[in-house]
Automatic annotation (TrEMBL):
Protein name (Swiss-Prot/TrEMBL): Recombination protein RecR
Entry-linked SMART domains: TOPRIM
UniProt superkingdom: Bacteria
Function: May play a role in DNA repair. It seems to be involved in an RecBC-independent recombinational process of DNA repair. It may act with RecF and RecO.
Range of residues in the leader sequence: none
ZnF (C4-type) ranges: 61-76
Coiled coil (residue ranges): none
A Pfam family per the record: RecR_HhH
Gene designation: recR
HAMAP family in UniProt: RecR (MF_00017)
The organism of origin for this protein: Pseudovibrio japonicus
InterPro entries linked to this entry: DNA_Rcmb_RecR, Rcmb_RecR, Rcmb_RecR_Znf, TOPRIM_dom, TOPRIM_RecR
Record-annotated Toprim domain positions: 84-180
C-alpha cells in the first residue's frame, strides 16, 4: 500500500531536502517545512533569498580552506590575528567551535576530513600539502593540531607531525585531552581518564 500524499510535490521536495540536513530526520523535516510555509513572508522568502546569495557568493578560501564570501577569507585577512600560529582542524564546524570559545586569535587550516585507509581517504585527499606549503613559505612558529580524539584523528595528527618534522623552528602541539570542565570522573570512559592522568599538571 502506497503512502498517501498530504501536500503537493513542491512541499514534498522541500521536506525531502530538509531531511538531508544533519540532525533533521523525516519527522523533523516535516515540522520545519510546515513552519517555513506557514511563515512564508517572515521566514521562507528571506531564507530563499539568503540561500540564493550563498550559492552565488560563498566559496572556499584558497589559503586555509574554510568557507566564506571572500577569498582570502575574513580570518586570513584579519591583521590582528597571530600569523605565526596555525590551528589545524578537520572541518569548518570545528573552526567555528574554536572561534566561539575565543581561546586563540590565530590563523586556521581546514583539512577537510581525516586519513582513513578503510574508506580510501589518503593524504592526497586532504588539504595537507597546502598546510606544508604555508609552513614552508610563511613565518609560522607553531602548528596546533586541533583534531578529534578518534583513531582517524590521531592517525592524521601523527602523519602531519611527521611531515612537519623537517621544520626544526616550528613547534607542533596538540589539544590537551582529559577531564572536561564540569565532568564527573564516574561518568568518564577509561581512555579519557588515562589521558587525563598522563597529561596532569601542577596544581
Amino acid at each position: 500500500m502506497s503512502t498517501r500524499r498530504v501536500a503537493g510535490p513542491e512541499i514534498e521536495r522541500l521536506i525531502q531536502l530538509l531531511s538531508k540536513l544533519p540532525g533533521l530526520g523525516p519527522r523533523s523535516a516535516r515540522r520545519a517545512a510546515l513552519h517555513l510555509v506557514q511563515k512564508k513572508d517572515q521566514l521562507l522568502i528571506p531564507l530563499a533569498e539568503a540561500m540564493g546569495v550563498a550559492v552565488d557568493q560563498v566559496g572556499i578560501c584558497s589559503e586555509c580552506g574554510t568557507v566564506d564570501t571572500c577569498d582570502p577569507c575574513t580570518i586570513c585577512s584579519d591583521p590582528r590575528r597571530d600569523g605565526s600560529t596555525i590551528v589545524v582542524v578537520e572541518d569548518v564546524s570545528d573552526l567555528w567551535a574554536l572561534e566561539r570559545a575565543s581561546a586563540v586569535s590565530a590563523h586556521y587550516h581546514v583539512l577537510g576530513g581525516t586519513l582513513s585507509p578503510l574508506d580510501g581517504i589518503g593524504p592526497d585527499d586532504l588539504n595537507i600539502s597546502k598546510l606544508i606549503e604555508r609552513v614552508e613559505n610563511g613565518s609560522v612558529k607553531e602548528v596546533i593540531l586541533a583534531v578529534n580524539a578518534t583513531v582517524e584523528g590521531q592517525t592524521t595528527a601523527h602523519f602531519i607531525t611527521d611531515q612537519l618534522a623537517r621544520f626544526e623552528s616550528v613547534k607542533v602541539t596538540r589539544l590537551a585531552h582529559g577531564v572536561p570542565v564540569g565532568g564527573e570522573l564516574d561518568y568518564l570512559d577509561e581512555g579519557t581518564l588515562a589521558q587525563a592522568l598522563r597529561a596532569r599538571t601542577k596544581f
